[in-house]
């Protein structure tokens, strides 16, 4: 006797098969290109990698081909995650692991990537289908489940620690593109436990701000040390969802966040430029705050505190501090464009740039608010006086 869950799974499989059949009949199934075994920098129109390999010739990246040796896990294949996965696929990443339990809906069509004919398909399956057509050189592994349930979480842990390109090796980087607190906490827990580097991303519920954050367990603040977007107390998220009320989303904001996320992934993996520890985006003001966040020694997460101890021990074992200073100088000298490695945005400045918090469900706040408009006339105001203009001028001359 099959359980309800098994039957639901079977129904889903059959639905997906039906969609695939329909795609075939409508001619949506295009022939895929042949696999390319070696990335070439040959400048011919038929080479999908010529523009990427040109980064070497331009002196930006030393060894672009190395991208094929990396594995990235994308958790959440929604507005940000799907675009992120597409960018990585087009860049020729070695392997992608996709995690999501959602289905494609017509309500997703205001965003990039998914298409109306994919409605009803699981997001990971629809994504794999599209991405494989774009670049068959990439290896895909998809998981159509919610990582926050106990069994799935254990499987998720197993796959991120053994699902690398070379089976048995860990993935190189995990990208959190989820839209809820619970899933972020699950990723944070897994990464703190494994010492796995990850990047968190998010877009606010009002669709006009977002952020990315690099989390190196023990070295930079983890999600529990300082959650950047959803500053929620330990309350049940289901209570936050109100019937008929949904979060706003824009393809623009999601595209920008996916863009700055993948840009930093490329910089991190291919070792060029400076990887941002935290980069925010406020669309209302085109404000991009940047900062570096140290871990909180009193973080709630015990594995985070353990990773901090380990990091400090490793740092103490480093030969000498002077070496670090020399390295810092070199970075500064090469900084032709005057871009700061770590922005000096102080807490006061951040506070000043924020305004009133919009009306959101209890337990949620936005990462950025609209800075209070400074009235330009305000600064020019003078104290009222009974003196005439002539008298004022005369007084000024005396001064
Ligand atoms: Zn922490």
TrEMBL record:
<keyword id="KW-0833">Ubl conjugation pathway</keyword>
<keyword id="KW-0479">Metal-binding</keyword>
<dbReference type="Pfam" id="PF00899">
    <property type="entry name" value="ThiF"/>
</dbReference>
<dbReference type="GO" id="GO:0005524">
    <property type="term" value="F:ATP binding"/>
</dbReference>
<dbReference type="InterPro" id="IPR029752">
    <property type="entry name" value="D-isomer_DH_CS1"/>
</dbReference>
<dbReference type="GO" id="GO:0046872">
    <property type="term" value="F:metal ion binding"/>
</dbReference>
<comment type="similarity">
    <text>Belongs to the ubiquitin-activating E1 family. UBA5 subfamily.</text>
</comment>
<dbReference type="InterPro" id="IPR045886">
    <property type="entry name" value="ThiF/MoeB/HesA"/>
</dbReference>
<dbReference type="GO" id="GO:0071566">
    <property type="term" value="F:UFM1 activating enzyme activity"/>
</dbReference>
<dbReference type="GO" id="GO:0005829">
    <property type="term" value="C:cytosol"/>
</dbReference>
<dbReference type="GO" id="GO:0071569">
    <property type="term" value="P:protein ufmylation"/>
</dbReference>
<keyword id="KW-0547">Nucleotide-binding</keyword>
<dbReference type="InterPro" id="IPR035985">
    <property type="entry name" value="Ubiquitin-activating_enz"/>
</dbReference>
<feature type="domain" description="THIF-type NAD/FAD binding fold">
    <location>
        <begin position="49"/>
        <end position="299"/>
    </location>
</feature>
<dbReference type="InterPro" id="IPR000594">
    <property type="entry name" value="ThiF_NAD_FAD-bd"/>
</dbReference>
<keyword id="KW-0067">ATP-binding</keyword>
<protein>
    <recommendedName>
        <fullName>Ubiquitin-like modifier-activating enzyme 5</fullName>
    </recommendedName>
</protein>
<keyword id="KW-0862">Zinc</keyword>
């Amino acid at each position: 006797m099959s359980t309800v869950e098994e039957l639901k799974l079977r129904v889903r499989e059959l639905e997906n098969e039906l969609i695939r059949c329909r795609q075939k009949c409508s001619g949506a199934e295009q022939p895929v290109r042949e696999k390319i075994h070696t990335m070439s920098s040959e400048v011919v129109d038929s080479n999908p990698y010529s523009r990427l390999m040109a980064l070497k010739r331009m002196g930006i990246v030393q060894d672009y081909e190395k991208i094929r040796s990396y594995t990235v896990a994308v958790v959440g294949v929604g507005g940000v995650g799907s675009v992120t996965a597409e960018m990585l696929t087009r860049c020729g990443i070695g392997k992608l692991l996709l995690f999501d339990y959602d289905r494609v809906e017509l309500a997703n069509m205001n965003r990039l990537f998914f298409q109306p004919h994919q409605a009803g398909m699981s997001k990971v399956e629809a994504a794999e289908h599209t991405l494989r057509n774009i670049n068959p050189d990439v290896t895909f592994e998809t998981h159509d489940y919610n990582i926050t349930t106990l069994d799935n979480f254990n499987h998720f842990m197993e796959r991120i620690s053994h699902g690398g390109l070379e089976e048995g090796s860990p993935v190189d980087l995990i990208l959190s593109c989820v839209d809820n607190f619970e899933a972020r906490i699950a990723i944070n827990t897994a990464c703190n436990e494994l010492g796995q580097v990850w990047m968190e991303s998010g877009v606010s519920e009002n669709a006009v701000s977002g952020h990315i954050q690099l989390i190196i367990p023990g070295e930079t603040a983890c999600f529990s040390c300082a959650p950047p977007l959803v500053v929620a107390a330990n309350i049940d998220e289901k209570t936050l969802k109100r019937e008929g009320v949904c979060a706003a989303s824009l393809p623009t904001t999601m595209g920008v966040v996916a863009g700055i996320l993948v840009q930093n992934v490329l910089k991190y993996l291919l070792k060029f430029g400076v990887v941002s520890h935290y980069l925010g985006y406020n669309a209302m003001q085109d404000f991009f705050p940047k900062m570096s966040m140290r871990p909180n020694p009193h973080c709630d997460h015990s594995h985070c505190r353990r990773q901090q101890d380990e990091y400090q021990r490793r740092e103490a074992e480093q030969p000498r501090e002077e070496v670090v200073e020399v390295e810092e100088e070199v970075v500064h000298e090469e900084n032709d464009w005057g871009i700061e490695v770590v922005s000096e945005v102080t807490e006061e400045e951040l506070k000043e740039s924020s305004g009133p918090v919009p009306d959101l469900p209890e337990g949620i706040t936005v990462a950025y608010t609209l800075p209070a408009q400074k009235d330009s006339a305000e600064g020019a105001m003078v104290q009222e006086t009974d003196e005439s203009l002539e008298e004022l001028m005369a007084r000024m001359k005396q001064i």
